[in-house]
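Ticket reopened. Same input as before:
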Amino acid sequence: MKATIFLLALLPLDRLIWLGFTDGLGANPIEFITRSTGTWALVFLCLTLAMSPLRLITHSIAWIRYRRMLGLLSFFYACIHFGIWLWLDQNFDLIEMLKDVVKRPFITMGFISFVLLIPLALTSTHWAQQKLGRRWMQLHRIVYLIAATVVLHYWWHKAGKNDFDTVTIYAIILLLLLSCRIPFIRKLLSKRSHV
Amino acid sequence: MHLNDRKQLSHEITPKAVFEARRELIKSAAAGAFGLALAPWFSREALASNPQKLLATTNPNFILKDELTSYKDVTTYNNFYEFGTDKSDPVAYADSLQTRPWTVTIEGLVQKPVTLDIDALLKLAPMEERIYRMRCVEGWSMVIPWDGYSLSKLLNQVQPLGSAKYVEFISLADRKQMPGMKSRIIEWPYREGLRLDEAMNPLTLLTFGLYGEMLPKQNGAPVRLVVPWKYGFKSGKSIVKIRLTEEMPKTSWSQFDAREYGFYSNVNPLVDHPRWSQATERRIGDPKGMFAPKIKTQMFNGYSEQVASMYSGMDLKKFY
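Engineering reply: fixed in the latest deploy. New output:
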């Protein structure tokens, strides 16, 4: 099951490579790749955050088994997204990059999201989980903050065209997923499924 | 035929769409608009692969060393919000734009206000081919062979009054033809403007074609402006009205956000857009390949020699 999900999750990347070789990325391939990988990082973030609520609703712990992999996939697509920007937009000029990060809120939010994902990816192993104990839980709550910074990143990106349709959908999904963490709603979710 | 057999009759009734198409055809024929107006009805497919040619003479003053952007990229990667905000929307949806009949009204502070038919406009001055760089405010650029003539040739005919200081360009706004208008991004119709001296500058091109063919609809058919030293959005598409005024016209994008889009919007690598740098640009279809680094953006998009004198003494950081 895990292997199947993993292979499916790589399809967006396969698609980009396929399109790249068949002249299918359009007039601005870099923009296409940047946007596509950004979107998929967000999709996998949503999926990661959906595992706990699914566990509550279905009373099955199985979902949690996929959470780490989904989280790492989100980080994987975020790495490509960030890497392409650092390489082709910033030309690996770290000073210029940091200037942009400080100056432009939409980039600030994207950058914060990426930086915050790093410790989560690094401590995603069983070993780190055991080693950190309770603090692991606390650390990984950062993902709630990332959900917010990611939406802001996307929101401000779209502000230029006043085109908030897609980003609103993601914002609502993330809001729903986060509200499942509120103790009161948590209880409600697990109770309802007893019936 | 059993005339009283209702079922059979309904088979023979011409479908409404076909009927209306025929009516349209007969009407155009009656109006004597054979040729251009009828071509799409007879062979939409053939038209796509064999668009109408536009006879133009290459102007040797406007030849560039830069490699031309491919016809495909120029005609499939467009900003034309009346058909949607995605770059691929215009080519997908601009089919509904009716470019004939078409008139352009020139009014306001002129001696001889006039409404010209597109055919009259096409014949008003010799058609030139000019290769211009096109720099979009979003940070990408193309190199395009346009066909047209200097806007000054038209403005001279209508004779601007001494009081005229600015020229306003108004694009078509018709919800029936332009599906993108249902989103409330900017206030329609799309309006752009130039100072009169900018409008009279020989570089400012009233444009009817590209690559030696009539403008594709997604590129602003049948007539648009091309102002190569300014960001692309200053060059209005599918223009229906040109108005000379004393006051600086309110333009669509600066009304949307005056901090991000100024009236002048000259290409300037030293003045950043609030959300991104304007120092470099990505050349669409860069011959160096997909992962080619961005190229440096030039002051006035490389047209300083022709235009810089118009802005001498002006603080371009203030008048962006």
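Residues 183 and 189 of chain A are 10 Å apart (CA to CA). The radius of gyration of chain A is 18 Å. Please confirm and we'll close it.
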